[in-house]
Amino acid sequence: MSSHLYALGRAAYRHRVRALLAWLAALVVALGLAGGIGGTFDEKFSVPGTESQIALDSLNRTFPQAGGVTAQVIVLAPEGATVRDAAVKKQIEAGVDALGTVDRVDSVTSPFDSFAKGAISDDDQAAIIQLQLITVDGAVTDATFDGIAAETAALQASIPGSQVSPGGSAYSNDTPGFSIVEVLGVVIALVVLVLTLGSLVAAGMPLLTALLGVGITVLLIFATTGVTVVSSTTPMLAVMLGLAVGIDYALFITSRHRDQMAAGMDPEESVAQAVATAGSAVVFAGLTVMIALSGLAVAGIPFLTTMGIAAAVGVGIAVLIALTLLPALLGFAGERLRPKTPRRKRRARAETAGTEPAEPGAKTTLPRRWVRLVTKWPILTILVVVIGLGAMAYPAKDLRIALPDNGGADAGTPARVTYDLINDHFGVGYNGPLIVSATIVGSDDPLTVMDGIADDLRALPGVASVPLSTPNENAEVGIVQVIPTTAPDAQETKDLVMRIRSMHDEFQAEYGVPVYVTGFTAVAIDVSDRLGKALLPFGILVVGLSLLLLTMVFRSIAVPIKATLGYLLSVLAAFGATAMVFEYGWFSTVFNVPDTGPVISFLPILLMGILFGLAMDYEVFLVSRIREEYVHAVARAGSRTEVDPGRTIEDGFNASARVVVAAGVIMFAVFAAFVPEGEGPIKTIAFGLAVGVFVDAFLVRMTLVPAVMTLLGHRAWWLPRWIDQRLPTFDVEGAGLAHQLALQDWPSADDDHLLYADGLRVPGNDDDLGMALRPGDVAVVDGQVDSGKSALLLSLSGRMKLSGGQVKVAGLVLPEQSAAVRSRTAVIDCRQLAPKHRGRGGLRTELRVAERRDPSVIFVDHADVLTDHDDRAALASLLDETAGSGSRAVVIAARDRALVDDLVRVPYRHLTLGPVPDLADSHRN
What we know:
Radius of gyration: 36 Å
Strand content: 5-15%
Strand order of the largest sheet: 16-17-18-13-19-20
Number of helices: 29
Number of strands: 20
């Protein structure tokens, strides 16, 4: 990983104009897609496969008046009058007729209609006019809303002293917007960047790249609205996450670049190394966040899946920009980013960065003092943090979830005014009616069946009234409207839904018709249930995959487990704090929470997914640097027993704390900025993320983690050998890159060897092996079965993992550049050659195919099995041409070199694999 990123960073630096133009082109393309195919946001919280959704879809086809988009207009009579007064009733009837003329109003039901039972309040002070609307692409048009507003205003004017307000489900799609408060988070981020990086130019780069990434992401989300259902919460979530991770990822790379420049490194080399080391952590951190967000698809809820994937794409774009555009911008800045500090301060910064040990008597930095404090009595630190966060998490037990309704709309909006008026005059259950549908197509007396079902439902506890019971025009399906006695988000309402569903068999036996419960309230209950059931599989999938990635990165069992347990503390504390503010009402004035109540139903799973990814960000940023110090200390000492793990924890923490603190503050500021003026779900999501990030970054990662790792000592980096051998290497700490750079001029700066190996170990052979081949050289490797011949050839060609030693092939270092080595070498196994009668042409054809790639080294394994005259002649010709042209080298392997002695007619190097190898020095003339 680090080797590839090193090359990517250098390429972006050298071709910075192209990189900048490519991302600007991507922005233009995204803008074109948004303008060309973009549609509108849709708040349809559908749950495919649930009873409520199946019934609702059926009603939309067979009984659209019951299943479509509706609006309500509530009319309050003037003081001292009632809606039944002749003058008031006449104006309401006239208003009904006028509303029927509004564009795309399909039908209007008067509160005085004989079928509209319950449309007039018990005290005759209020009446509800029902409107059935026709949508365009699933949305109500602005012209329809304007027409309804105009007619309701006219109706209110016609009844002096009255109040008329439109609302209902059609008014629940208010798209959340941005305010000046959100900009404050960006300003705070800029201030933190300037303080951390010490340069306005350097600080502007992470902010610029993050804004570009957010812009592209939001435009792509707008384009997606034209092809699928996208909630208005999706772009807001993408903006929050995109800004937070985009700034942090760029900060991590830029900070490493500045530290290296302060130590005197060349700008181009510094950018390449910063992308290789810090960029490796960025790739892993971004991958973890993307896995967590994509894992939201486990719930099987389309709008949540879309939200997760859109946010994951935004994170992916942030990672790509940090790895490509940011190095280009750093290239444009060049030497201007080199810190201009006195030598004394530069040495202090080098100590802070962990590039050299502190000198005796040198000033101890604040991060070093902090880590010494929390690790002095690690058990005490662990107890304080765990008990404190446990107490903070306790209120999470009272956290209630529900889908948002108009009761959560902003005060003063038509939706909220109408909702409150209906509550006051009709009861809390009238804003969340249940629709009970019955398939009556096979009934002989559908009206009697519908009346019987309505009577049975009226007798149930928790039912306030049953104002409507009617079949459709074709008598195929009937509906019964049930008004609960409790609010839509109350547990008693959910119990009523479950009670009616449990009567399915009873209705089937008595009336011969199946009965289903649907409507917005039932859909909301089903969404919450589906999300609750999805939490466990979601946790297993996301946490399981991320544990595997953490094990790959840190080569440890304890560190991933510790990281996950710390995450659980963070997410539970975030849930607890959310319950305190939005359920209990604590500090509600501070956070501009006018009403307490349930939070949006997808908050727990969304918060779990996002916080897990962000928690792993800090884990990687902090612990990868601790592991880097540990790995390098072991390499210097030559043995783990000679290394003090506490010292490596202190040095790694000291080197990364400044960046982790800045990253935590930036993320907290960005999320917190969406809380004061945030609308609907965004406020609760932003609050939970802000608390979770603060807890995880400062209490878990920077306090609990060093204490736990101090207790573990060397055991923190223990991994069973059999697991280590089977896991791919991620190399976040850049040990592979350090090895590659160390061998860059090995064995000499002007070396011309095509293959140079020293101290090489391969499976099947316990000896240190060596080989040195220049252009035109031929080598013969012989040895008996299981001597390691094939392993040697596969290792030298980059096709098998090295067990040890130093190897360069075609100027490339193994194993870090194994992919490039594979492209510059060819391996032919003579045992796999197809007979010529099958049309393959034997060895000569295989060599022709291999030579098209112009390999620097050709490896021919099991050459002793060649018996066909043409095959042997082809091999002899290859060796002759190699020795004559001097453009490549060839290595052949056989059980005994005597079996191929007649084919090798040129001087060659010989290596016998056995108890005493002959290393690269024997020649035959």
